[in-house]
Amino acid sequence: MTSSVVTDAAQANAAARTKPARANRPAAKPHGQWKVDGTTPLNANETWKQEDNGLNVRERIEQIYSKNGFESIDGTDLHGRFRWWGLYTQRRQGIDGGKTATLEPHELEDKYFMLRVRIDGGALTTHQLRVIGEISTEFARDSADITDRQNIQLHWIRVEDVPEIWNRLEAVNLSTTEACGDVPRVILGSPVAGIAKDEIIDPTPLIHELSERFIGDPELANLPRKYKTAITGHPSQDVVHEINDFALVGVVHPELGAGYDLWVGGGLSTNARLAERLGAFVSADVAAEVWLGVTSIFRDYGYRRMRTKARLKFLLNDWGPEKFRQILQDEYLGFELPDGPAAPKPPTPGDHVGIHEQKDGKFFIGVAPTVGRVSGTILTSLADTLEAHGTTRLRTTPHQKLVILDVEEDHVESLVAELDALGLSARPSLFRRSTIACTGIEYCKLAIVETKVTAATAIAELERRLADLVDNGTLTQPIALHINGCPNSCARIQTADIGLKGMMLPTPDGDPTPGFQVHLGGGLADSNREEAGLGRTIRGLKVTVDNLPDYVERVVRQYAADRKNNETFAEWAHRAEEGVLQ
């Protein structure tokens, strides 16, 4: 194993593994690792998962619950196994954020569901898009959100309608299978796979193989926790690979040609940890087996006793990348992977917003809805608009965006104008382009604050207030604003220029008000950043929802006044004194 296996980021992660020895340390409790401790369940979640595989609930939904209604649903199915088919109960309307932590799940939840449509690689046809749009308008009160994991989420779904929704989705080769739960979640893929002029390797065949072979496989349907995959062959590294459990990033090996660099063990939530390179080069012909090997390690060695420690990042933290790679090779692959190079710094932004030429001479257009919020009506109109302009393909992105493929040059500007009329901008402002937001209190039972409207309001205010900095050329690069309704970081707050974690804040009159803890200077590898890094938190740096535009305007103007040369916001935020960040 070469010394290049562990990068600077890995060394920082490795520091967390070093603990001083302590005399008379009591015997450690078992972690619930199947290959070490046996498969006896050590908590209630592991018990019900073993009693009946989550995939089996589909038959009960179709044959019992959809016919007898919400009240007929078994509690364990409702709060557990339904997730294996992309269904969560949504938040009851009118419950404020201060009650999120004090009410029981059944007190918070409504009799309606969020339904997550799984879109591996983000690949859609206009026919599929129209079906999703029609389902939204007919069954989901016209709701639809594009997520930062390339899925589309619908709300207000009744259990009575789920079988019909499945029939319609599956008729166009879409599904909700394992869109949630302790399973392999949606596979992130490059939105420009197969069409970009500068692509290193096309991951489309691999994503298809993984989806066909392993999604819905009962042998992989009981993992310790959720398991996230990201695969790209594009040099922009456009799938946020550093925060996924398993990731492949396109590289060119000096002797072996184009393939992938292997990363494992990333994840955010309340204990953020960046993935680490294993230093291994993965060729296309063994990539599926490597995915299966890493996934099987998680199944067999992942920690199951405590849900809070059950993600792959905790196992990697204890093992380190060298041991992880050795066990992968020795126990699961049966061969050694060659050492490989790291991918260079991305030369272009990974959100693909704007107008770009494809390798076949046609164009792709990356557009930004406002923080992923669309509707069934918009999706159906979008399908019609694309077909009228001669294209039938599009992709969702890991940045709550859409990329339209295969546009003839003479159709570009007319299509851009019609997309803009739908609220999908190919030339968005810096703030609209770079702001993302989670579902928030509108639908999520875990949320404490509202996010989508808060984000849209902030974007509009910042566009107006900071127009002078944009117009005079002072501000030329997007400043990423990520807004999350709770501590779980679905909107990736630790990897944003300005990350906002929802919480209730005290007020002088004693009544708490919605607000955020602020993280500053985080980011993933991109055209302005060599390596990923987590944001800086400053004790006491919190802002109310109402004061959010004021705070962002103030800190951005401070950055504009203080920065040195071409210093990015993240670089400035990490060196600035605490006082100027308040």
Q: Can you summarize this structure?
A:
With about 575 residues, the chain is α+β, with helices and mostly antiparallel strands. The chain is about 30% helix and about 20% strand.
Give me the secondary-structure topology.
Elements: H1 8-15, H2 34-37, H3 44-51, H4 57-68, H5 75-79, E1 87-91, H6 105-108, E2 109-117, E3 123-125, H7 126-139, E4 143-146, E5 152-157, H8 162-170, E6 184-189, H9 204-214, E7 227-232, E8 246-253, E9 257-264, E10 276-282, H10 287-301, H11 312-319, H12 321-333, E11 354-357, E12 363-367, E13 373-375, H13 376-388, E14 393-396, E15 402-407, H14 412-421, H15 430-434, E16 435-437, H16 452-465, H17 467-471, E17 481-484, E18 498-505, E19 513-520, E20 536-544, H18 548-562, H19 569-575, H20 578-581
Parallel strand pairs: 6-7, 7-8, 16-17, 17-18
Antiparallel strand pairs: 1-2, 2-5, 3-14, 4-5, 4-13, 8-9, 9-10, 11-12, 12-15, 14-15, 18-19, 19-20
Helix pairs in contact: 7-13, 9-10, 10-12, 16-18
Describe the largest sheet. Answer: 5 strands, antiparallel
Write the CATH architecture name of the largest domain. 2-Layer Sandwich
The number of E-state strands comes to: 20
Radius of gyration: 23 Å
Question: Can you give the mean pLDDT?
Answer: 95
Region (Disordered): 1-46
Biased composition (Low complexity): 9-30
Keywords: 4Fe-4S, Heme, Iron, Iron-sulfur, Metal-binding, Oxidoreductase, Thioether bond
Protein name: assimilatory sulfite reductase (ferredoxin)
